[in-house]
Design goal:
The chain is of the alpha/beta class. 29% of the residues lie in helices and 27% in strands. Strands 1, 4, 7, 8, 10, 13, 14 and 15 form an 8-stranded mixed beta sheet that branches. Strands 2-3 form a two-stranded antiparallel sheet. It has a two-stranded antiparallel ribbon with strand order 5-6. Strand 11 and strand 12 form a beta hairpin.
Length: 273
């Protein structure tokens, strides 16, 4: 099944790094967070990706253009006036990646609308290019197929960092740390969509969440798959450092592959942290 990745935003809340590259290309554990997301889907056998690029879209294209070169053992033979490149072996994943320039200022719904011709008339998956998760994709797909609606999104409850007061008559009767169960579920991405979703999208100004999802919800066509495991977006440097720490300590719940990750100390020494 095809996987569409929304990767065109400005990433203004993490401008320390996004001024140089698109937010999904900011590295955690030595690789772009977008790559981590693709590895998650590939673990479940989904290896055809459509990337909705926008801001600094050329960076994404160039990165994938060089990905094969950087992950292969290669001999360059310049003898006898011949420029020959010999590939001995490669560590490449068997992926198909389509990178589409969906516009600089295009909204999320408009970006999705622009890749319709690459998706075709089939069920597909969609997520944001800045959040990792250990959701079971096969169970998510099975849930989507079971209810027959147009859209399924993955919902999570986040642990909060504020204390909770139980107040009675102005007096504080109890204080405790806020639990994830206290909050409302949020949209974590990791969606499954039927091709009829494109009927809900208009032009480049269409905000997917405010227009399409809102209308689907009012029509009873939007379902949520509750995920109680790990999910974390990367909106700022603090969250980036959290993900880096999990990877360096080999505690990253979304990491299901064997590629080595540099330790925090190694990255400090090399100036990458």
């Amino acid at each position: 099944m095809k996987v569409v990745l929304l990767s065109g935003g400005f990433g203004s809340r993490i401008s320390e790094e996004s001024q140089f590259k698109p937010k999904p290309m900011i590295e955690i554990g030595g690789m772009p967070i977008l790559w981590h997301i693709m590895k998650e889907y590939a673990f479940f056998g989904h290896t055809e990706f459509i990337i909705c690029a926008g801001y600094k879209q050329e960076y994404i294209k160039e990165w994938f253009a060089n990905y094969f070169l950087h992950n292969s053992d290669i001999t360059f033979d310049f003898r006898n006036g011949i420029n020959e490149m010999i590939v001995h072996q490669t560590k490449m994943e068997p992926w198909k990646v389509t990178v589409v320039d969906t516009g600089y200022n295009t909204m999320t719904g408009g970006r999705l609308k622009r890749v319709q011709k690459y998706v075709g008339d089939e069920t597909f998956m969609l997520t944001y290019g800045d959040g990792v998760c250990d959701v079971d994709i096969e169970k998510l797909l099975a849930f989507h197929k079971s209810h027959g609606k147009i859209a399924t999104l993955t919902a999570v409850k986040l642990a909060q960092d504020k204390g909770v007061l139980d107040i009675e008559g102005g007096a504080v009767r109890a204080f405790r740390e806020k639990k994830s169960a206290d909050g409302s579920p949020i949209n974590a991405g990791y969606m499954v969509l039927e091709p009829s979703i494109f009927n809900y999208l208009t032009d480049d100004t269409c905000v997917f969440e405010k227009i399409a999802l809102t209308q689907l919800a009012s029509e009873g066509q939007l379902m949520s798959y509750i995920h109680t495991g790990f999910w974390q977006c990367m909106d700022n440097i603090r969250e980036k450092n959290l993900l880096e720490k999990l990877l360096s300590e080999d505690k990253a719940p979304w990491k299901r592959w064997d590629r080595p990750v540099p330790s925090m100390e190694d990255r400090k020494i090399n100036g990458n942290l």
